[in-house]
From TrEMBL:
Lineage: superkingdom: Bacteria
Residues in CENP-V/GFA domain copies: 4-130
Keyword Zinc: yes
Record carries keyword Metal-binding: yes
Keywords: Lyase, Metal-binding, Zinc
Protein family (similarity comment): Belongs to the Gfa family.
Record-linked Pfam families: GFA (PF04828)
Name this protein carries in UniProt: GFA family protein
Length: 141
């Protein structure tokens, strides 16, 4: 198992993650563009593997998917840290730029490319989806 640490710009919110990194994606949805003025690079972790010190503020919004997304950010400096979705219970999206070692995670996919502005630098070597990523169906046991 891998461990990661990270935090916000001012240091008032810090976190530790005791888990291997899940999928990592560059997201070009309009909400991510609004919070970052660009696409955001994100990685998914089990929520219960993340220990947070400090008190992030939060904002709930209904996404284009219809899910409620709760974004957590530093109330002091505004750094976007995490998001949780009702469509992914038990999983938390972490903004890769907030990791102490952001090069430890490499994105493999561009999502919501259909929403990207014409000037976006979309890496053509990564898998691409015009909208949300396609999730393989779970095998029935």
């Amino acid at each position: 198992m891998t461990s990661f640490t990270g935090g916000c710009l001012c240091g008032q919110v810090r976190y530790e993650i005791a888990a291997d990194a899940g999928p990592s994606r560059v997201c070009w949805c309009r909400d991510c563009q609004r919070i970052a003025s660009n696409g955001t690079v994100n990685v998914i972790f089990p929520s219960d593997a993340i220990q947070v010190s400090g008190s992030p503020a939060k904002h709930d919004k209904t996404a284009d998917s219809g899910n409620t997304v709760t974004r957590r950010f530093c109330a002091h400096c505004g750094t976007q840290l995490f998001s949780d979705s009702t469509g992914r219970p038990g999983l938390t999206v972490v903004r890769v730029g907030t990791l102490d070692e952001p090069s430890a995670v490499k994105p493999t996919t561009n999502i919501w490319v259909g929403s990207a502005p014409s000037w976006a630098c979309v890496d053509p070597s990564l898998e691409q989806f015009d909208g949300p990523p396609v999730v393989a169906p779970q095998a029935k046991t």
